[in-house]
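TOKENISE THE FOLD
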Amino acid sequence: MVAVDDALSRFLGEAGEGALTLFAASCVERGSGVFFLALAYDESRGGDVEEYARFLDDLWSGTSLSLRDRESHQGRIDSFPEMQGEEEPPGIMAFAYDAVAAMYYSYAYLVSGDSINVKYCSNHMLNSAGYIDDAVPGSSNRYEDEIAEQLGAVEALSSDLSKVEAAVLRERARAMGRDRVDALRIAFSE
């Protein structure tokens, strides 16, 4: 954890909006599948699923969004049920909370420019990975994988940003997210 904290602190102080937004988007992408899985158990939330997917797509191009759109997205995310309680919800919905909170803090960064929100986003994905490790027996260590992925993203995004392919970064995040969904699907079907 110390390694990711140190690297992220340097990155937050040195990187520009484009790099920070891509870092946050990759974090949110890794958690998004868990959100979609959790909401599959609640058919009344179809509209939230569609909005979350649109907000995620928009996050990948966040620097081109107007301030008005950024604020609108952040406000709508803040109204999701996961953001309304003082405590995380139980069961699989707890994983949806971390995914929504990470999305919220990504947009909070895009609205305010305060990079501490990117750290909050990072922390939610680290927490989520740790919780998945706790919920899913086995030898996989998703928490350590999340640390490694965040450190790799920091390294890639700290170099020449023009050489970073957002589509490759996104697909890598999706692959990790699918692993988490598969693990939780098994854990909650038993």
About this structure: The chain has a mean pLDDT of 92.
